[in-house]
Specification:
binds guanosine-5',3'-tetraphosphate; Rossmann fold; Elongation Factor Tu (Ef-tu), domain 3
Length: 530
């Protein structure tokens, strides 16, 4: 195997998704500790930055020049080169969070054992399911009181419509949490006591028939419960099918406690065995093989610089095939131009380093003087590739926006259009009304603040913002349909995006159902691929 091929073979690129507070940062940190990428717990970004107030956030962005949230963390573990994509939550939740999932080959879904599925998990899961990427579930915080593992698995199956397969099974929870039963090994991994905060904890391995030893480790009551559970799982559960895991219809489930580093290493090892090297991507009718020597990549995120002194932006690219070399000439398909990427960067936790080479599966950040758009393809010259575009996802918060100073029409229009093109916000207008107001839609409310701040500092425009009561946006799929002829609830609004697509704004799921039921043949979509 060539060097490039073996480098690609050992890459694993995945995103960790969760609702805030389920333990994503803690799990990421433990994984990085295994890889030796960080030395002490508590050094992963996010903790300090994720919970500050809005004004702080702006200040921070200014000081750092650029946001380091939604970056990628790379580390080595037992011969694998692992890229973890961060999916920002809290106030940083935005359409970027969704786009980041377009760059991943699989996802790890962290769930709080006491809470089960929460709203943000639901939203992120949907995007992963749309791409049919493998989804691994880590049910966290078993050291606290937890819901029944059976109930949690049932919830996943019923709500998400996927199969689940428990790779291990918890023994007790809360104060009584004694470890897990590893189903593949047929062994109990017990811990005699917790060593909070330590990076590595040795599990005590024991077979289910070692009664005396088990009584000492987990006690007779839990031993009996476990024996019943094992019988039930082996008798009634699904068979494990790696093929189904890889096509995203069966989720392997792991129980553990990230904070106590309980079950993290077995999870990582099992995960690495089940996941695959970078997946092929589609370019028109063609499938691009990641092991192809020729470099190709697509832009999945553009990070505007919040610092006025540095107006440049960073474009994040996912490498889809071959090897990337610094300073080599590549071709930007949408721009129709050759280019050299002189300062490619890789982001590792809090540090950024200029890199000389990278491989399929890796993510690089390059300075963007304003030439890239989300979804753009970059490849070897002469290779006529164009990767499938990144869909636009329906925003969930809407506001009507107008400029305070009527004289500043040009700056306002230029600014708002540019910010929309970067993908931070989506803009709409009401057709045929002559109203100059712009309707802005965002996935995370913080983007409204970003818009206000950027229009003021970069374009010198103050805006007035009025919240709108809509919650759902749907693209109308039917062509040649007279929207005015539709039977809709009175609070449904017809709008168009700046490409002229027709959309409907709804105040509740009930109104969406009304539209679908009262208008036969109407087709509505939650995302758009134009
Ligand atoms: P997030 O990135 O998904 O938002 O979650 P994060 O890892 O920041 O974890 C949220 C809180 O849950 C943190 O507590 C963290 O210590 C705790 N936590 C994570 N994993 C476990 C676990 O396995 N067991 C228990 N009991 N707690 C866990 P915090 O008090 O909000 O923050 P901190 O003061 O500990 O940093």
């Amino acid at each position: 195997m060539s060097d490039t091929k073996s480098e690609i073979q050992r890459r694993r690129t995945f995103a960790i998704i969760s609702h805030p507070d389920a333990g994503k940062t803690t799990l990421t940190e433990k994984l990085l500790l295994y890889g030796g990428a960080i030395q002490t717990a508590g050094s992963v970004k996010g903790k300090a930055t994720a919970r500050h107030a809005v004004s702080d956030w702006m200040e921070l962005e200014k000081q750092r020049g650029i946001s380091i949230t939604s970056s990628v963390m790379q580390f080595e573990y037992e011969g694998y080169c692992i890229n973890i994509l961060d999916t920002p939550g809290h106030q940083d939740f935005s359409e970027d969070t969704y786009r980041t999932l377009m760059a991943a080959d699989s996802a790890v879904m962290v769930i709080d054992a006491a809470k089960g599925i929460e709203p943000q998990t639901r939203k992120l899961f949907k995007i992963c399911a749309m791409r049919h990427i493998p989804i691994f579930t880590f049910i966290n915080k078993l050291d606290r009181e937890a819901r029944s593992p059976y109930e949690l698995m049932e919830e996943l199956e019923n709500e998400f419509g996927i199969g689940t397969y428990p790779m291990n099974w918890p023994i007790g929870c809360g104060q009584e949490f004694k470890g897990v039963y590893d189903r593949e090994k047929g062994a109990i991994l017990a811990f005699s006591e917790f060593h909070r905060g330590q990076s590595r904890i040795r599990a005590i391995e024991c077979r289910p028939d070692e009664t005396e030893k088990l009584d000492e480790l987990i006690g007779p009551k839990l031993r009996q419960t476990l024996a019943d559970d094992i019988e039930l799982l082996d008798g009634a559960g699904y068979d494990f099918d790696l093929g189904l895991v890889r096509e995203g219809s069966l989720s392997p489930v792991f129980f553990g406690s990230a904070l106590n580093n309980f079950g993290v290493e077995p999870f990582l090892e099992s995960f690495l065995k089940m996941t695959m090297p970078p997946l092929p991507r589609r370019s028109g009718e063609e499938t691009v093989d990641p092991f192809d020597e020729g470099f190709s990549a697509f832009v999945f995120k553009i990070q505007a610089n919040m610092n006025k002194a540095h107006r440049d932006r960073i474009a994040f690219m996912r490498i889809c095939s071959g090897k990337f070399e610094r300073d080599k000439e590549y071709y930007h398909v949408q721009g129709g131009k050759a280019l050299r990427l002189a300062q490619p960067q890789q982001l590792m936790a809090q540090e950024r380093a200029v890199i000389d080479e990278a491989y399929a599966g890796d993510i690089i950040g390059v300075f963007d003087p304003g030439i890239f758009s989300i979804g753009d393809t970059i490849c070897e010259k002469g290779k006529n590739l164009c990767f499938e575009g990144i869909p636009t996802f329906a925003p969930e918060h809407f506001a009507s926006v107008e400029r305070v100073d009527t004289m500043k029409r040009k700056q306002f229009e230029k600014g708002i259009l540019q910010i929309a093109q970067e993908g931070a916000i989506q803009i709409f207008h009401e057709p045929n009304t002559g109203v100059e107001e712009v309707i802005v839609g965002v996935v995370g409310v913080l983007q409204f603040e970003v818009l206000e701040y950027r229009l003021k500092t970069e374009y010198g425009v103050d805006i007035r913002r009025r919240a709108m009561p809509f919650e759902l946006l749907r693209w109308v799929e039917n062509e040649d349909l007279d929207i005015r002829s539709l039977n809709l609830t009175s609070d449904t609004k017809w709008v168009q995006d700046f490409k002229g697509n027709d959309l409907l704004l709804f105040t509740s799921p009930w109104c969406v159902n009304w539209a679908l039921q009262k208008n036969e043949g109407l087709r509505l979509r939650e995302f758009n691929r134009d």
